Amino acid sequence: METYIGSIHTVGFNFAPKGSSFCQGQLLPINNNEAVFALLGTTFGGDGRTTLGLPDLQGRSPVGVGQGKGLSTIMWGQSYGSELTTLSLDNLPKHSHVAAFNPSGGGGSVEVSVMASKKAGDTSAKDNAVLANATEGMGLQTAYAANPADADLVSLGGVRVQGSGGGTVAVGNTGSNQAFGIRNPYLGLYHIISLVGVFPSRN
């Protein structure tokens, strides 16, 4: 039975019969394969002047041309895909890592002003009272002023708060970025293309 020139068959034997060739991306001379060139052109390689290329189906699966529902468009002769891939940060789901705090030395100081009243004290220690000149009355010393006027307040110096500390937070990376396989289960067979036969008619 004659086949169409350019038709591709999958066979269980390991040779290309007369009038056919393996689909392994070979370059053929145009002058001996004008009919094949008329059908394939340079879709699968070749310079279009002296050579044409055959499809390369070594390790690849053929797929229908066009755009299936919800799928990307596949062009005639388009070759795509890899048997290995790696994931980048953009491919990973949101997640967290353990953070390690590494303390280190540091220091600093803050000047603090303590307010006091210039007038004599009129109360013992209580909420919102400020230091005042100590007074004695009936044996009880009062050194605080309750609700002093702003004009009576002075700022006492000599108070300093010394602080120290510091450090860094380190979030470590994990994983080794190794490539992993995405190839479907397979069975190795030969693809052959007919170089002679019936030239297909468009109508």
TrEMBL record:
<protein>
    <submittedName>
        <fullName>Putative phage tail collar domain protein</fullName>
    </submittedName>
</protein>
<feature type="domain" description="Phage tail collar">
    <location>
        <begin position="6"/>
        <end position="62"/>
    </location>
</feature>
<dbReference type="InterPro" id="IPR011083">
    <property type="entry name" value="Phage_tail_collar_dom"/>
</dbReference>
<dbReference type="InterPro" id="IPR037053">
    <property type="entry name" value="Phage_tail_collar_dom_sf"/>
</dbReference>
<dbReference type="Pfam" id="PF07484">
    <property type="entry name" value="Collar"/>
</dbReference>
